[in-house]
Fold this protein.
Amino acid sequence: MGFALELEKAGIPTIPVSTHAFARLAKATTKAAGMPTTRNAFVPQPVVGLSPGELRAYIEADDPIAKKPFMQVVLDGLTGPLTDEDYADASFERTTPRFLEPDTEDNIRQLFIEEGWTDFLPIILPTEQRVEAMLKGTSHAADEFVNRMSPTAFREKWDFDVEKVAINAVMAGARPEYLPVILALCSSGFSARSSSTTSWATISCINGPIRNEIGMNYGIGALGPYNQANASIGRAYCLLSMNAQGGSEPGNTYMGSVGSNWNYTACFAENEEASPWEPFHVQKGHKAEESTAAIFFGGWYTQSGFGPRETWKEKFIRCLTATDHFSNPFIVMDPLVAKDFNKMGFTKQGLIEWCAENAKMKAKYYWDDQWTTTLVKPHAEAGIEPAASRLRADPDELISIFSDKDIEILVTGGETQGAFKMISGRLVGQMPRGNERRPSQTAGKLLSIDKWR
Amino acid sequence: MAEKITVMDPRGYPPKVEGKRLAIRPETLDGKVLYLIDCLFDNADVFMEQLRLWFAEHMPKVETRMIRPKESWVDDPEMRAKVVAGGDAAIIGVGL
């Protein structure tokens, strides 16, 4: 859509063709871009997986939105003269008030539900007094700009300040002492409510002294609903994302087909005390006494296992190659697992390198993937490594599907079981695999929590 | 009568929208250059090829040129400049 709007601005009549599932989103996007009369054409969903003949049939059939022949919509759109509506000024301003109209608690709760400002679980209503109390958790001014956010790259970005973060933190049930952690996550400007059709989510990991200062759980049930800080920090980041970016409404600002339960809340802390290895943030160049937040963008899959047992290598290879390989994994290990690997002589980096070296699949399986084809293949064709070598491989040749930069290991849990999970998630700030053209957002550093104290 | 309370708005601050104008349309595409932009989404190339064949069969006076950006969902100013310099109209698909 962005291309089409830019070309129109440059004087080139342009028709963006989308599938009918995106009609509402297309309307909202063009309106917010100041070009509401953009002439779209639609074909039925899906396009992926169809034969040339089936796609030709789309072209010769009706546009399912306009209910007219598809090619008539295209040709009318490219040659039909501009109308009064096209010439009308499409500028407009929207504002969001600081305070909502006074009403009863029941009515306000209903308003939040109807407006889509909640995750449909009960919230704490953000009265001024509660927000003021929350703001005592940071030294930063309420009106300090934090960042801007949008549900996708092609939607307009909305700004938010410290007060907006505090409001959503109140709603999530957070305590004031959690606010620096929530501010750090939100300061990424990276939405925890991505609108992608693939149902992405964010999963956050906290390191450093703040974990103990605010009583986060990195023991039994570390990834589960057993701690106010873990639960409400993750929830606050999710609520802020949906509200600060202008919504997360199915069919408009959210298009994830299946959705993700990680979108409710997903935040844990590393068990630095029980890990045999250096903490994650130290590994990334921070001092042990710093407190940091890491955001992993993924949530597509979770592989799990126990051990390491005698056949752990085969188990790891099965797990790694069963991943949806466009979304690389981070491995969450109970300290028991990490200690056993450590006894076997593995450093954390050594184990990561072993995983990268041994996770292989046939090239034809690697490339028969919608997202690898859409997003990695153009780089492979442009000669960018390692994607280019993977594309040159014979279809039956075994190729590495991850590099050591794609995999992270974190240690958490209560040592009641030697369990591990391989969870879909790219560390935000690192580049997607095979996408070396895109600059790193954070140059490998994690988000500072101390900055927001 | 239940007591009324005041709460704060959780939403961010939306940007001001500046209206923009669509490009002036030609009366016909005959004799014009139409760029067919494959947005790189999976199978979009197959769809755009079928569109090219449709124009070749039904509107042969339209010169179609296929073009692709460097990557999906990322602006490619070089590609846009080519379309603006050499084209009269464009169709981009399939995606958003």
Notes: Chain A has a mean pLDDT of 94. Chain A touches chain B through 112 residues (CB under 8 Å). Residues 2-87 of chain A form one domain.
